[in-house]
Amino acid sequence: MITPLAFLAALALLITIHEWGHYRVARACGVKVLRFSIGFGPVLWRRVGRDGTEFTLCAFPLGGYVRMLDERDGLVLPHERAQAFNQRPLRQRSAIVAAGPAANWLLAIVLFAAVAWLGSEVPKAVLGTPPAGSLAERAGLRAGDWVRAVSHDGQSWDEVQAMPDLMVQVAKAQALGEAVHLTISDASGHGSRSARLDIDQLASRTADRRLADDIGLFPLSEPLIQKVTPGEPAAAAGIQVGDRVLSVDGRAVADAGQLRDAILRARDGDQPRTMVWQVERAGQVVELTPTPAIVQEGGRSVARLGLYPGSAPERVLVSYGLLDSIGRGAQQSWDTAVTMIRVIGRMLVGEASLKNLGGPVAIAGAAGQSAQAGLVPYLAFLASISMSLAVLNLLPLPMLDGGHLMYHLFEGLSGRPVSERWQQQLQRVGLLILMLMMALALSNDVARLAGWH
């Protein structure tokens, strides 16, 4: 139940802020606003404001609009002509169009700043044993390494406060096809060395469990069994929640990462291999012999037991002062925008997979997961989506705010507006492009749900 509620709350907030931006700047420029609507379809709630604007809430909340007085849309009375949108100077019309994305951008800054100011307890950036063959293992990373700083070019470095900082930088590098340079100390903060994580080798991959395993960055945690899935090999072998794994096939297990790696290695070609586990349970040592199942994940076969290992990793409180939070909010919103634009560019030239494009199902899932994690993760989710909405609306596509700004740019350069005929043709093209993008995003959502991606 929390997923649809979190999704609808996010939609309502982001759409309202976007349309409020258009509305407030239109009123400031003297344009009469006829309707401010959240959603489409049958009207569920209506109120008329003192300025004559009709505010409505409609049945289908997947969008919204602000309808302004405009001679191109219908008859305008002579005494109201000065309040028509099309009669305002070009700079005012451009400001009204740009105000929606600007409002979403401002909201993202505020929310990112709130996340930084409120702070949260998050896993410390101390790494567990990386899976065999992962980028982390090939980079020489090992259990107990504490990542202190990260760089995309080896020159400009950003401090890593905790594990989320590291994972954000890794996700950004993977989306942009860049390597990541790390500065590392031991778990106590002593010593320093550098490592290069070749994330650029995975640039075309979609974000999933297989990608996480191939990167190999997991927080250090103890080899405790947190979850056992009924009906899976782990349950059949008698493994229980709370078991602490001491050894696998006679080799001591130091952390959850090493246990995950042992499970992945438990196969001979396409055949699973029975393991011998010693676990501590209620102060007693128990020997178990689980045999994993070979399953298909992302187009390849892997060994799985149907359990989740790992204790809660060491956590640190990360928070900032008010002024620092505002600065971080502005910087993070800018970084998000630049990354999105670069990823879109990489998709257009075929350097990034179109499978990364997510639709409403993916967004709803992320909304539910962040809401379940708490207030701060949900605010971070809202900030990211608000920034995404701002960037997407500024794309130079007809039917989007960016397309209207392109019309205004043409008018400013040529001294004449885009003809009605051209606008109609471009609107059709823009609608077709948007429908194709929506169809692709929905197909990606279905593929993820079906396990095809």
UniProtKB/TrEMBL annotation:
Keyword Protease: yes
Keywords: Hydrolase, Metalloprotease, Protease
Name of the protein in question: RIP metalloprotease RseP
